Amino acid sequence: MSSPIKTYCIIGDPVQHSLSPIMQNSAFSALGIKSSYISFRVPPRELKTSIESLKSIGIAGFNVTIPHKISILPYLDVLDNTASKSNAVNTVKNEGGQLTGYNTDLYGFIQPLYKRNIDFKGIKVLIMGAGGAAYAIVTALSYEKEIGEIIIVNRSTQNASNLVQHGLKLGLNTHKDDFNNLSKLALQSDLIVNATSIGLNNESSPIGRDNINPKSIVYDIIYKPIITDLLGKAKDVNAKVVYGYEMLLAQGAQAFKIWTGLDAPIHAMKKALFGIFGEPQ
Ligand code: NAP
């Protein structure tokens, strides 16, 4: 007897921009797995009933995006270490009605840095942003015990302070600084990460070209556009860049592995994202 067709989805609001359906469906099809992945817009007030409905239709698993990554926590039965440590969930697996939450953004963020053999010993990290993604990033970095320091700069200073507390609890040397000091901070940082939404609409980054040290690594987690203003400036000065789509792919590949137990066909997922033109260099 053939195994039943499984259904997966992503919930969020807005969600129509998500590239996860194209990525995950291409992965299923590349491995000949009879499963499908769709997106559901779930407004905040409908989160609880939507999760009950997903359970009742026997959804095999789902991704969670803005604005539900934290608010979903009370509706899950079990939290994996990545979810409890970051206090956020982006992937859920349903096993016979038991929902387990994971946060694959941690692996998604760190994997492109591992791929580049980054030496974390003593490095100074500058993170712009203190939203859900920044929490996952700080949590991911907490596994690198030799990091020198992490500086958080964010529009809302209260949110920055909360993230600093999160970092300190995880044993990181974390503190916040002011947006006005960004230029000086950027020049002194080994790794610069944009985890704000600045750049999504092609806005200029508050970090200028002259404030990027060619020896720095510049990581923008925004994946659309592929080359944000910040990454463009970093490329201009020959700094090493890490693209947001790399995080997108790695977090998706990890979710695929959690659901299916199989290594994700990264090549097929990339091809679905970039078509015949391939990845940017
Ligand atoms: P979020 O929780 O809504 O946080 C947004 C962050 O951006 C906050 O720090 C916010 O500052 C800041 N911000 C927003 N507009 C700003 C502005 N005009 N000026 C200065 N700061 C501003 O969102 P998130 O989940 O952390 O996601 C952040 C970005 O990362 C999004 O663009 C998302 O698409 C991207 N992302 C990418 C991946 C990937 O796989 N590559 C994964 C997750 C997220 P305040 O605290 O002051 O509001």
Give structural notes.
- It is built from 10 helices and 12 strands.
- With 281 residues, it is an alpha/beta fold.
- It folds into 2 domains: 130 residues, Rossmann fold (3-Layer(aba) Sandwich), CATH 3.40.50.10860; 137 residues, NAD(P)-binding Rossmann-like Domain (Rossmann fold, 3-Layer(aba) Sandwich).
- Helix 8 links the parallel strand 11 and strand 12.
- The radius of gyration is 19 Å and the shape is globular.
- The structure holds NADP nicotinamide-adenine-dinucleotide phosphate (NAP).
- NADP nicotinamide-adenine-dinucleotide phosphate binds next to helix 4, helix 5 and helix 9.
Low-pLDDT stretches? none
From the N-terminal CA to the C-terminal CA, the straight-line distance is: 46 Å
Number of DSSP strand runs: 12
SSE ordering: EHEHEEHEEHEHEHEHEEHEHH
For the largest beta sheet, what order do the strands appear in spatially?
2-1-3-5-6-4
Structural class: alpha/beta
CATH superfamily of the largest domain: NAD(P)-binding Rossmann-like Domain
CATH class of the largest domain: Alpha Beta
The CATH topology name of the largest domain reads Rossmann fold
List the ions, cofactors and other small molecules found in this model: NADP nicotinamide-adenine-dinucleotide phosphate
The value of Rg in angstroms is 19 Å
Mean pLDDT: 95
